[in-house]
Amino acid sequence: MDPYKTLREETYEANCQLPRLGLVLFTFGNVSAVDRDRAVFGIKPSGVPYENLHPQDIVIMDYDARVVDGTMRPSSDTKTHALLYKSWENIGGITHTHSTYAVAWAQAGLDIPIFGTTHADHTHQPIPCASVLTDAMIEGDYEHETGHQIMNCFQDKGLSNQEMEMILLQNHGPFTWGKDAAKSVYNAAVLEEIARMAFLTLQINPNTHPLKDSLRLKHYERKHGKNAYYGQGC
Amino acid sequence: MDPYKTLREETYEANCQLPRLGLVLFTFGNVSAVDRDRAVFGIKPSGVPYENLHPQDIVIMDYDARVVDGTMRPSSDTKTHALLYKSWENIGGITHTHSTYAVAWAQAGLDIPIFGTTHADHTHQPIPCASVLTDAMIEGDYEHETGHQIMNCFQDKGLSNQEMEMILLQNHGPFTWGKDAAKSVYNAAVLEEIARMAFLTLQINPNTHPLKDSLRLKHYERKHGKNAYYGQGC
Amino acid sequence: MDPYKTLREETYEANCQLPRLGLVLFTFGNVSAVDRDRAVFGIKPSGVPYENLHPQDIVIMDYDARVVDGTMRPSSDTKTHALLYKSWENIGGITHTHSTYAVAWAQAGLDIPIFGTTHADHTHQPIPCASVLTDAMIEGDYEHETGHQIMNCFQDKGLSNQEMEMILLQNHGPFTWGKDAAKSVYNAAVLEEIARMAFLTLQINPNTHPLKDSLRLKHYERKHGKNAYYGQGC
Amino acid sequence: MDPYKTLREETYEANCQLPRLGLVLFTFGNVSAVDRDRAVFGIKPSGVPYENLHPQDIVIMDYDARVVDGTMRPSSDTKTHALLYKSWENIGGITHTHSTYAVAWAQAGLDIPIFGTTHADHTHQPIPCASVLTDAMIEGDYEHETGHQIMNCFQDKGLSNQEMEMILLQNHGPFTWGKDAAKSVYNAAVLEEIARMAFLTLQINPNTHPLKDSLRLKHYERKHGKNAYYGQGC
């Protein structure tokens, strides 16, 4: 009996959502899910096509990115996931993709401005684009340093990982997270759509204005505030 | 026996069209249908994914946005629907989405110009973009005021809700309506396509001219005028 | 026994290709097929959704746009088809759509330049955009005059309807034709792709040059010339 | 018993991937696979729709583009494939498509800059765009000269066909290759996505910078270098 069966299944299911949501070409993405009680997380094995993936292929890792269980090599981005789980104890799942529009903004090196309520329904700030890593970081422990760059960006901008569950890494692509793996995948799809809408908005009117404060906060609060009235309250 | 069974089924079917037509990501949209005899409307419950939706989940509301029947919390946009049904007695269904190209125009804060016959087949005016609500409206009864903003826009521009069955709300997205819920969904899909074509048109030729009056009216009249010859006359 | 059974089936099958090829939203398109021996053509009935269409719904018309057989009202664009069949005796099928990128070029009011071999494989000229009809034409016998406008454009530009099987009508959309209805639908899909590629090309490099003559003619001739070596020669 | 059965099946399977990956409209593409022991390659017959293709239709050719086995006419691009197999002994499969975004860059006549890690995961250089052939080349043995133009471009730019498995031909479209036919198709899909991302990047920020050297090499090396740690090492 596999003690990580549930964690593997959660991780497997969340990974399978990526191609269904149109967020990945071939193997360009990975999702992990954490088990806080055991202090381990499950992650997709590296380079395995989604259609060949099975729950038992999920590799179980600790927060220092050491393999705890599993026979396959974990995602090459595993150390980024590990550092985020170690540093941010409130998150339950992480998704990394190379989805088209989010990557385009990352390659453009720009934060995604907040132009509308679709964005504000999910976060009341622009989506940050963390600067490209320094040469020393890239030539050092690259994927671990990628995790540091994410946290540095959040610290510099005074962002909360609960109010902002997504980031772009310049010249690379998006990372998203959430209370569990499924929520991190949801956020990856939302980010892709926000990125697409913002691109189109600027093509139509390069001089348009960001959402004003009252509407920005209203939409965020009606969904996430203490008097939220969106959803079924469960 | 549920007295609202037919209304719930109409509302349910119309909501299910949204993902089929590619107009919604996750739960980003809602459709309502009215029963004028009973003075109630059915609307999608808030935050329920379309694939989990059942006819019995539809919430029955009166025109003052009070729940008449149903156990779930209605769409957070319910008060907008309610005010439109109360004010515009000739409409039978309302759709709200965050479809990509319509949102992009709303975020750009611009009316959609009338560039061709695809547009004129459905309305002979530009698609209006209502200004963003004032802070007082946003901080007041927000969704109710959203309904007022729609009606204010139609009044200011002298538009008829029968000749123009769609609107954009600046920084938010589209609302569409029609003689029944199915027609409001049809209009939501037409608006998205018109928005996409207008975006592409301006990318190809920013100096192109709007449709001239004779052609604008010809296409509208052949489909909607008293001598219309489009369709099977039923 | 229906004497037009074969013609109706050909027309029906060709119409059904439009939604499969992503060329139509709802009922925004129509295909006709001609029977030269009987001097009649079959055409889609007006306003009928493709999923509800049956072969027996196809309306049989003569070249003066009079109904010969059938109980439904024919496409509102029927007179355009009729004039083309009457004037161009070598064509066997006609397709009209409001496909997105072709409409965008029509709304931009521009010919589609010939930028590459995908275009030259099908025609060695830019795709013409016929000017918008005069007010007199629009207020007269509009759909009949639309056919005249197509032929006027071909005459003015010295184009052959065999070497160029497609046209845009300014502020409206594309018409395509071919040796039979299936070929006219094929051309509608090719035009949409050429229109999309040309749009993207100009976005990437507004100063790019059209295809040079030698390559333009080479690709056209290897597929359509007397020494053509593309295809299986049947 | 067909001595080319395995080669035909490999070629057939790889061709069938093109429509599944959205890389071709109608017959706009072809894949070949080589058998180095027999010094022959299999290639798609010309002008045959993918849905009508059978393994036995694959035409077997030698490196001088002479038919060795098969009853159908081979792809009109066969001489380009033949020259590449003859000149580059390390490649096992070749794909040619007219995929939309790759063609748009080819029609724009520009190399695709390296803007991000999606690109660097596959090659550490911009994707080259070979100049349009001279009139003499076009009017001579055109498809053979197309192969020469590809090799000239690689020689001029000092590129290795193992580090760069893709090219654009100006005003035409992409060719890709790899260790086998499946890898060449994979590369065709990767190129299309890189082309799309680069287009969007420049639309969002025309002044963005290419990927810096350290990150460009890091991503390429972690996947392809001697200490690569991407994938399962098999």
Report on this model:
The first copy, chain A, is of the alpha+beta class and 234 residues long. The first copy, chain A, has one domain (5-224): Class II aldolase/adducin N-terminal domain (L-fuculose-1-phosphate Aldolase, 3-Layer(aba) Sandwich). Chain A is 41% helix and 15% strand. The first copy, chain A, is built from 8 helices and 8 strands, in the order αββββαβααβααββαα. The first copy, chain A, has helices spanning 5-20, 78-87, 100-108, 117-120, 135-139, 142-157, 181-204, 213-224, and strands at 29-35, 40-43, 59-62, 67-69, 93-97, 129-130, 166-169, 173-178. In chain A, helix 2 crosses helix 6 and helix 3 crosses helix 7. The longest helix of chain A is centred in the last third of the chain and has 24 residues, at 181-204. The interface between A and B is medium-sized, with 30 and 33 residues.
**Unreliable sequence segments of chain A:** none
Question: In which range does the helix fraction of chain A lie?
Answer: 40-55%
Binned strand content of chain A: 5-15%
Helix tally of chain A equals: 8
Shape verdict of chain A: globular
Number of domains of chain A: 1
The number of strands of chain A is 8
Characterize the quaternary organization of these chains.
Answer: homotetramer
Largest two-chain interface: A-B, 30 and 33 residues
Widest sheet: strand ordering of chain A: 4-3-2-1-5-8-7-6
| CATH class descriptor name of chain A | Alpha Beta
